[in-house]
């Protein structure tokens, strides 16, 4: 007997009949769909995956708590790597896939694949397709056309990125042929890498809870599958579905087969081939007409099992358990729909993502609704995913009940009409937080929020509804997809003007944010952390966990007094079902109070759907899904009653009363409660409760709060404090606000009271600002450094230093006014002083009219010089005229001289006389006298008129005279780049004389370059009182009083604390005392001496007219030479006679003179040594530039010997190419320590406003001491384009 004959004899008659029917179906069909599951691979020696580790992987036998679904999970690719016997690394997960890869690639497809391929080529079969959940690739390996294959779970013969950097996949090519350590069951080879980035690579297989599966290839195969269905529908042929080895463990294939068989648009026959009899028939679970789908994130069951006190993802496990409990409780209560129980399907989703993966999973479920129509969705867990799925649910008409999505925008009934919310909205959370801020007297915060709908929703509420209550100083966005912030976390928090950090993020993201804060060292005493979700306290180390002490969190709680009475009976039964569940019992919390509120909301979400379905069924209307090829074309029908009962829900759930708002939104009506907790020693300590119906925090116990900030027991302020900070201060010299004290100079030493040190050890500061800093530091307890601004820097340029990103200062203190232009770039503290402007001009002293007032135009030295010139001219005229005139009547020479004086006097005053001059020298002398007289008379007349006019007029009375033009606008001095030009241009005119600095006001007034100037009244009075008494004076009343504040950078974090400190100083009267000490100066009174000095300044002095007199003397010298020339014969004759008479005496005298001269020259030569020789430049001692106020030393012993007693130095000063004029002062001196003496010389130069160079030189003599052969030089001002060169001229021994 043949084997086939034996086989036929063993076939059961009933089975034989079924085989015959199946053969007939194969021969009569026009299309065949092969659907295959894990049983299809048994003939090739592969496992079926039924039961714990059955036929899968030997190492799983060592782990009774791990099954196939645990290993076929993408979480293994995201954990640490390494060869570990604890089996907690990615290498253990890759060993599982290496085993499967080797098993699948080494196995040979059995004969069944060949038979299927032959049936595909039957003449009656027009179309064929293979739908398989197997990842072994045996259909394609056996020769089946890949375009006629859909591997719905992917294929192990392709790889993808662990965290897809792109939607590409590539062939495995033995990448999973990895060596495994038999002792640890871990891969010891290098793990496969992504072909497009540096991450790991994984099989392109759809695993359990897989949200990162790249479905590019599956989508292409799905399109081919849809074409196959469309072709069948188009030809209206008979379809034969042959299901091969599809079990119930993973029912994907069974559901697809049954869905195709039940499709009303297809004429299908169904053959199910399965060795297990219980799997041959359609399971009752899949025949139910109604089911509810729950979307819950994946969780780490190890952490739930071990960390039973608030594990990282306990809430999602709790929610799953109570979802199942609600379905089970409905069956216990015999709540049925058309005599069929309501069933539930759990879909595991990823924690991250925008909802696309969930939509894809949901679409797959809707396409599998052969017997169980989806009529309700519970979830998803995040607002982002809910928004994405909400539009889909609204489109197909399925109610979506939220247990954790809190974004307020989901309330919109227009965009999300089928969205219902059990959990309280973020509007209530924001209101609770605002009330908490008011309770703590906080008004600012730094907001850290996630880049998702939950984070942006919180930001929107705070900005739009509570912007008057909470000012968000800084925003930090955390992107959970890449685990990074949009800005530097440390820098953002440190520069923030608030030390309250509000973290608006879910639990998982909060954990990541807190971990980053730990890594950045931000959990110090500088901040108060306030969370909107739990902070996981099971951090890697005890030290990290302790760093969370002092954290505050506002958490939702189930409070019966707020939400209404809780249905305790329903709650007890739900918890009992969970506790008695064989799957969940070991995970039940040790205390009912530890059950997460979101899980409670999940139960009530399911229960609300169940009650609405039950009522709708009692009314005879059962909702069902009208299926279509594409899930977006599906539609829930017969839903009117269902929707009505859902909108009008009013039931007692385990979270309280469940009732929706109906018209406004589908939000829950009942109030919400939040608990304020404080983390202390890894525990949550209850502080207070907020109930929305009370609108306030109650049962507040502040004394239990631990504040980390500044180790304080009292509620901290919300703004950063200066205490312990280091502040860099720049000051601008402006007495009496800032008085610079030079340690090396006694100048102004009497002003330097209570000086403060600066970074330059040679200088300190005194004045109003120094005392102000000292008092501010006493109250704020900060440390500081002070730097003095360069005198050449303008106020605006110094202020601009704080607008730079790389600024070197934190404050600028002086008489810096607050102006609108400056506020565009910097900020100010509250004002600490109000300072007015005032006008300064030259001191005005009237000249009294007396008997001698006529002499006032000239000084007495000028009058004496005029008299001396008249006498000199008279004598000279007499000398010129004497030879040509006879003495009448025995007149004397005195009379002749007197007549000459009269002639001179008449010429000076331009008076005609009868006196005839007979010689040309006399006439020339008189002509000079005549010109001199005209000039002197004109000058006298003009000066006298000016004095009398000024004496009759009145001085400048103030700003009104400047506005009215009493002073030429070009003679009004205004300090450029300060606050004065802004006022002057707006209120007077844009025409003025710019001054480079305030210090330039005083010399420009004294040298009459300007007639008036405008500056701060306190500064002007201080300078006049101490330096320019009765030379300058302020006139008129004070005007334009404006505020002076501390200049600080924009968004300086300590601004508010600074404002509080300054305001407190004002309230305590400390600022008033500083004002009395430094700013209330009185103008000095006039004195006779000062008045005479001023009057002398108005008179014509000798130095002014000395050139005129010198010109006259030169003229007379010329006249004398002419006289000698005319009388040369007489003079020569007289000289000849004298020589003849005294020839011998003269010779002797000449010999004596020559001898004496030679001796004298010899002596002088021995006492003085000169370094100056023709065409040789003298020795250069050095060059001094006006770029420092410190003393500069030049050694003299390099050229002068130690025997020298006096040295001559040529001082050569050069200046030019200047934009304005300025005076420069120079002091030079030598010292002799043995004698205790010094020899000091003063030289004053001038820097001219010109484009060429100017030179000035002078020979100075100094005492020389060999014990200290040094020449010291210093100056009191800076000057650009000016330098001094020092040359050695010579020396003497005496």
Automatic annotation (TrEMBL):
<feature type="binding site">
    <location>
        <position position="197"/>
    </location>
    <ligand>
        <name>Zn(2+)</name>
    </ligand>
</feature>
<dbReference type="GO" id="GO:0045211">
    <property type="term" value="C:postsynaptic membrane"/>
</dbReference>
<keyword id="KW-0812">Transmembrane</keyword>
<feature type="transmembrane region" description="Helical">
    <location>
        <begin position="1104"/>
        <end position="1126"/>
    </location>
</feature>
<keyword id="KW-0325">Glycoprotein</keyword>
<keyword id="KW-0472">Membrane</keyword>
<feature type="active site" description="Proton acceptor">
    <location>
        <position position="153"/>
    </location>
</feature>
<feature type="binding site">
    <location>
        <position position="166"/>
    </location>
    <ligand>
        <name>Zn(2+)</name>
    </ligand>
</feature>
<feature type="transmembrane region" description="Helical">
    <location>
        <begin position="924"/>
        <end position="942"/>
    </location>
</feature>
<keyword id="KW-0479">Metal-binding</keyword>
<dbReference type="InterPro" id="IPR026591">
    <property type="entry name" value="Sirtuin_cat_small_dom_sf"/>
</dbReference>
<dbReference type="InterPro" id="IPR028082">
    <property type="entry name" value="Peripla_BP_I"/>
</dbReference>
<keyword id="KW-1071">Ligand-gated ion channel</keyword>
<dbReference type="Pfam" id="PF01094">
    <property type="entry name" value="ANF_receptor"/>
</dbReference>
<dbReference type="GO" id="GO:0046872">
    <property type="term" value="F:metal ion binding"/>
</dbReference>
<feature type="binding site">
    <location>
        <position position="161"/>
    </location>
    <ligand>
        <name>Zn(2+)</name>
    </ligand>
</feature>
<dbReference type="InterPro" id="IPR000337">
    <property type="entry name" value="GPCR_3"/>
</dbReference>
<dbReference type="InterPro" id="IPR015683">
    <property type="entry name" value="Ionotropic_Glu_rcpt"/>
</dbReference>
<keyword id="KW-0675">Receptor</keyword>
<protein>
    <recommendedName>
        <fullName>Deacetylase sirtuin-type domain-containing protein</fullName>
    </recommendedName>
</protein>
<keyword id="KW-0770">Synapse</keyword>
<feature type="binding site">
    <location>
        <position position="194"/>
    </location>
    <ligand>
        <name>Zn(2+)</name>
    </ligand>
</feature>
<dbReference type="InterPro" id="IPR001320">
    <property type="entry name" value="Iontro_rcpt_C"/>
</dbReference>
<dbReference type="GO" id="GO:0070403">
    <property type="term" value="F:NAD+ binding"/>
</dbReference>
<dbReference type="GO" id="GO:0004930">
    <property type="term" value="F:G protein-coupled receptor activity"/>
</dbReference>
<dbReference type="InterPro" id="IPR029035">
    <property type="entry name" value="DHS-like_NAD/FAD-binding_dom"/>
</dbReference>
<feature type="transmembrane region" description="Helical">
    <location>
        <begin position="860"/>
        <end position="880"/>
    </location>
</feature>
<dbReference type="InterPro" id="IPR001828">
    <property type="entry name" value="ANF_lig-bd_rcpt"/>
</dbReference>
<dbReference type="GO" id="GO:0015276">
    <property type="term" value="F:ligand-gated monoatomic ion channel activity"/>
</dbReference>
<keyword id="KW-0862">Zinc</keyword>
<dbReference type="InterPro" id="IPR026590">
    <property type="entry name" value="Ssirtuin_cat_dom"/>
</dbReference>
<dbReference type="Pfam" id="PF00060">
    <property type="entry name" value="Lig_chan"/>
</dbReference>
<keyword id="KW-0808">Transferase</keyword>
<keyword id="KW-0406">Ion transport</keyword>
<keyword id="KW-0628">Postsynaptic cell membrane</keyword>
<dbReference type="GO" id="GO:0016740">
    <property type="term" value="F:transferase activity"/>
</dbReference>
<dbReference type="Pfam" id="PF02146">
    <property type="entry name" value="SIR2"/>
</dbReference>
<keyword id="KW-0520">NAD</keyword>
<keyword id="KW-1133">Transmembrane helix</keyword>
<keyword id="KW-0813">Transport</keyword>
<dbReference type="InterPro" id="IPR003000">
    <property type="entry name" value="Sirtuin"/>
</dbReference>
<feature type="domain" description="Deacetylase sirtuin-type">
    <location>
        <begin position="12"/>
        <end position="299"/>
    </location>
</feature>
């Amino acid at each position: 007997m043949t084997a086939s004959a034996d086989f036929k004899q063993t076939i059961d008659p009933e089975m034989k009949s079924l085989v015959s029917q199946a053969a007939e179906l194969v021969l009569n069909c026009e299309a065949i769909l092969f659907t295959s599951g894990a049983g299809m691979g048994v003939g090739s020696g592969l496992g079926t995956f039924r039961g714990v580790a059955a036929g899968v992987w030997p190492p799983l036998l060592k782990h009774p708590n791990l099954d196939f679904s645990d290993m076929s999970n993408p979480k293994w690719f995201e954990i640490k790597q390494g060869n570990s016997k604890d089996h907690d690394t990615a290498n253990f997960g890759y060993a599982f896939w290496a085993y499967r890869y080797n098993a699948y690639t080494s196995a040979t497809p059995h004969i069944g694949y060949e038979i299927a391929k032959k049936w595909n080529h039957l003449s009656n079969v027009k179309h064929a397709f293979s739908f398989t959940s197997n990842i072994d690739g045996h259909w394609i390996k056996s020769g089946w056309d890949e375009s006629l294959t859909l591997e719905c779970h992917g294929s192990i013969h392709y790889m993808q990125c662990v965290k897809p950097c792109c939607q590409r996949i590539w062939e495995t090519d033995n990448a999973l042929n990895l060596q495994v350590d038999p002792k640890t069951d871990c891969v010891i080879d290098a793990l496969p890498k992504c072909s497009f980035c540096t991450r790991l690579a994984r099989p392109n297989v759809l695993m359990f809870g897989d949200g990162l599966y790249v479905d590019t290839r599956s989508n292409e195969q799905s399109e081919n599958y849809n074409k196959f269905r469309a072709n069948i529908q188009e030809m209206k042929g008979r379809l034969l579905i042959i299901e091969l080895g599809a079990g119930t463990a993973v029912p994907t294939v069974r559901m697809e087969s049954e869905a195709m068989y039940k499709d009303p648009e297809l004429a299908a026959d169904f053959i199910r081939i399965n060795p297990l009899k219980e799997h041959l028939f359609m399971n009752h679970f899949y025949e139910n007409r109604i089911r509810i789908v729950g979307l819950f994130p994946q969780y780490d069951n190890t952490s739930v099992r071990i960390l039973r006190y608030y594990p990282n993802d306990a809430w999602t496990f709790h929610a799953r358990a109570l979802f199942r409990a609600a379905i089970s409780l409905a069956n216990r209560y015999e709540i049925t729909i058309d005599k069929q129980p309501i069933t539930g399907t759990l879909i595991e989703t990823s924690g991250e993502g925008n909802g696309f993966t969930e939509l894809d999973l949901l679409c797959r479920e809707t396409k599998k609704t052969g017997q169980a129509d989806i009529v309700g969705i519970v979830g998803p867990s995040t607002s982002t995913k809910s928004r994405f799925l909400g539009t889909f649910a609204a489109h197909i008409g399925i109610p979506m009940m939220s247990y954790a999505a809190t974004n307020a925008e989901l309330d919109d009934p227009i965009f999300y009409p089928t969205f219902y919310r059990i959990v309280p909205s973020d509007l209530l959370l924001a209101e609770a937080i605002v009330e908490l801020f008011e309770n703590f007297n906080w008004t600012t915060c730094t907001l850290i929020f996630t880049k998702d709908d939950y984070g942006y929703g919180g930001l929107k509420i705070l900005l739009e509804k509570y912007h008057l209550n909470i000012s968000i100083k800084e925003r930090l966005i955390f992107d959970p997809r890449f685990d990074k912030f949009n800005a530097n976390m440390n820098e953002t928090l440190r520069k923030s003007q608030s030390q309250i950090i509000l973290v608006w993020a879910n639990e998982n993201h909060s954990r990541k944010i807190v971990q980053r804060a730990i890594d950045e060292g931000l959990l110090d005493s500088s901040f108060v952390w306030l969370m909107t979700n739990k902070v996981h306290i099971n951090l890697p180390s005890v030290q990290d966990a302790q760093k969370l002490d002092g954290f505050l969190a506002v958490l939702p709680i189930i409070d019966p007094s707020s939400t209404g009475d809780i249905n305790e009976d329903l709650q007890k039964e739900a918890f009992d079902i969970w506790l008695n569940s064989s799957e969940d019992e070991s995970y039940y919390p040790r205390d009912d109070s530890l059950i997460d509120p979101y899980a409670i909301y999940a139960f009530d979400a399911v229960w609300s759907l169940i009650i609405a379905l039950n009522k709708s069924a009692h009314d005879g209307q059962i909702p069902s899904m009208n299926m279509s090829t594409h899930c977006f074309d599906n539609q829930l029908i017969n839903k009117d009653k269902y929707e009505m009962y859902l909108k009008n829900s009013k039931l007692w759930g385990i979270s309280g009363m469940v009732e929706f708002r109906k018209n406004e939104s589908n939000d829950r009506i009942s109030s919400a409660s939040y608990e304020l907790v404080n983390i202390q020693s890894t525990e949550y300590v209850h502080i207070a409760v907020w109930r929305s119906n009370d609108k306030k925090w109650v049962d507040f116990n502040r004394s239990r709060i631990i504040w980390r900030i500044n180790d304080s027991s009292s509620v901290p302020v919300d703004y950063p404090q200066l205490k312990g900070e280091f502040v860099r201060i720049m000051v601008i010299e402006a007495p009496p606000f800032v008085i610079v004290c030079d340690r090396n100079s006694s100048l102004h030493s009497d002003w330097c009271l209570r000086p403060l040190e600066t970074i330059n050890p040679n200088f300190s500061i005194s004045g109003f600002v120094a005392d102000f800093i000292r008092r501010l530091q006493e109250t704020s307890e900060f440390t500081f450094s002070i730097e003095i601004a360069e005198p050449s820097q303008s106020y605006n340029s110094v202020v601009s230093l704080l607008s730079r990103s790389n600024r070197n200062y934190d404050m600028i203190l002086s008489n810096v006014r607050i102006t609108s232009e400056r506020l565009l770039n910097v900020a100010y503290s509250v004002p600490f002083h109000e300072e007015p402007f005032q006008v300064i001009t030259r001191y005005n002293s009237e000249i009294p009219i007396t008997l001698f007032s006529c002499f006032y135009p000239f000084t007495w030295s000028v009058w004496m010089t005029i008299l001396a010139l008249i006498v000199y001219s008279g004598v000279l005229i007499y000398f010129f005229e004497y030879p040509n005139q006879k003495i009448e009547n025995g007149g004397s020479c005195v009379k002749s001289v007197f007549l000459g004086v009269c002639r001179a006097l008449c010429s000076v005053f331009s008076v005609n006389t009868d006196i005839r001059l007979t010689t040309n020298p006399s006439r020339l002398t008189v002509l000079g006298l005549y010109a001199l007289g005209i000039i002197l008379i004109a000058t006298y007349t003009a000066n006298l008129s000016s004095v009398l006019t000024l004496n009759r007029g009145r001085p400048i009375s103030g700003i009104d005279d400047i506005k009215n033009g009493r002073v030429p606008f070009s003679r009004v001095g205004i300090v450029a780049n300060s606050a004065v030009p802004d006022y002057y241009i707006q209120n007077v005119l844009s025409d003025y004389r710019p001054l480079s600095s305030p210090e330039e006001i005083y010399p420009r007034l004294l040298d009459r370059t300007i007639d008036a100037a405008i500056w701060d009244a306190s500064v002007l009075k201080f300078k006049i009182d101490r330096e320019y008494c009765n030379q300058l004076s302020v006139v008129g009343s004070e005007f334009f009083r404006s505020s002076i504040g501390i200049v600080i950078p924009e968004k300086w974090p300590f601004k508010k604390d600074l404002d509080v400190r300054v305001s407190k100083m004002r309230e305590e009267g400390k600022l008033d005392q500083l004002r009395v000490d430094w700013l209330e100066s009185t103008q000095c009174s006039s004195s006779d001496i000062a008045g005479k000095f001023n009057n002398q300044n108005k008179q014509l002095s000798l130095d002014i007219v000395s050139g005129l007199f010198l010109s006259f003397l030169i003229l007379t010298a010329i006249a004398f030479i002419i006289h000698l020339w005319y009388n040369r014969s007489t003079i020569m004759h007289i000289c000849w006679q004298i020589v003849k008479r005294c020839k011998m005496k003269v010779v002797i005298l000449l010999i004596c003179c020559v001898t004496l001269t030679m001796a004298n020259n010899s002596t002088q030569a021995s006492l003085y040594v000169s370094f100056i020789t023709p065409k040789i430049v003298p020795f250069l001692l050095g060059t001094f530039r006006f770029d420092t106020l410190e003393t500069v030393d030049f050694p003299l012993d390099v050229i002068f010997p130690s025997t020298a007693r006096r040295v001559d130095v040529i001082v050569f000063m050069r200046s030019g190419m200047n934009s304005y004029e300025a005076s420069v002062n120079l002091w030079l001196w030598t010292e002799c320590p043995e004698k205790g003496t010094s020899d000091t010389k003063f030289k004053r130069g001038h820097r001219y406003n010109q484009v060429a160079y100017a030179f000035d030189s002078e020979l100075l003599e100094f005492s020389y001491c060999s014990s200290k052969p040094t020449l010291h030089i210093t100056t009191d001002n800076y000057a650009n384009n000016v330098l001094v060169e020092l040359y050695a001229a010579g020396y003497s021994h005496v």
